[in-house]
Amino acid sequence: MGFRVPELRNASVRIQHPERAAAIIRSLKEQGPSKLQVISDFDMTLSRFWCHGRRCPTSHNILSDSRVISEDGRKQLKDLLHYYYPIEIDPNRTPEEKQPLMVEWWSRVHELLVQQNIHKEDIAQIVRESGVMLRDGFKEWFDQLHEHNVPLFIFSAGVGDVLEEIIRQANVFHANINVVSNYMDFDENGVLRCFKGPLIHTYNKNNSVLQGTEYFQQLSTRTSIILLGDSMGDLTMADGVPNVENILKIGFLNDKVEERMGKYLDAYDIVLERDETLDVANGILRYILTET
Ligand code: TMP
Ligand code: MG
Question: Active-site positions?
Fold first, then answer.
């Protein structure tokens, strides 16, 4: 497969069953772009984990670290991150064990954010000042999908208003994109008053929150899937797709690499170790979309 998709030889690529991964990629090509859809996580999957030697912010942390949050609020939000993030990525706890703790984390963060004076009009500026970056190669990724009419479903436990703004500012918010995420609800003065339900956290990214959206039903002929994620919770994002024939799961392993590699290799067809680019995904897509 390496000569057809040269990026699969990149130093970051880890694959437990290369033959199996190659067979899936070949099937995706055989089925062609009219059968394909992409389901992707946002934070730390389409956005970068590291940039300029520092951690990049998630969509929540863009808000938490911003100047519109009081100093005390910022400290409380940071404390929550330091307490709950190690739990989120702990390879020794099951998703079932993590679920209630994630609900607790998200609920406490949303509660704190609502207590701040966050204005709808401030979001664009907050994003601009945040230092967030999409992964290298993002333009080719978003543009290729759009040009070939491949639907891109972004399923995010982050903040929808913030991630949409990031994609908009990068000039790649094309018509083929659909987002399901946690969206803010503003009062008549444009001030944040609550988050719209249902709450999406890292470990309920599945049918339980997609019911009623009908998105996948409309796409029932798109039986080939490329799934991109960075968390073990992202693996269930395609569960609502009715007739999956081929699914290629690509996982970014950003943090605690040694401890988590085994589980990632078992779960993802392709694991990208500390890879801040979309090069491998772009290479696979180019191969699938090229008519030869
Ligand atoms: P997602 O990448 O699965 O969509 O989830 C969002 C990420 O945001 C998840 O990895 C946890 C992280 N997060 C923060 O960084 N700060 C927060 O306050 C919260 C609630 C989540
Ligand atoms: Mg993520």
Answer: 41, 43
pLDDT tens across 34-57, in order? 999 999 999 999 999 998 889 999
Enumerate domains of the chain plus CATH numbers. Answer: 6-50+133-185+207-289 (3.40.50.1000), 51-129 (1.10.150.340)
Output the CA 292–ligand 1 centroid distance in Å.
40
Q: Are 180 and 153 in contact (CB under 8 A)?
A: yes
Question: DSSP per residue over 214-270, as a string?
Answer: -HHHHTTT--EEEEEESSGGGGGTTTT-TT--EEEEEEEE-SSHHHHHHHHHHH-SE
The answer to whether the CB of 138 is under 6 A from ligand 1 is no
Average pLDDT over residues 220-247: 96
Tokens of 229: 């994620």
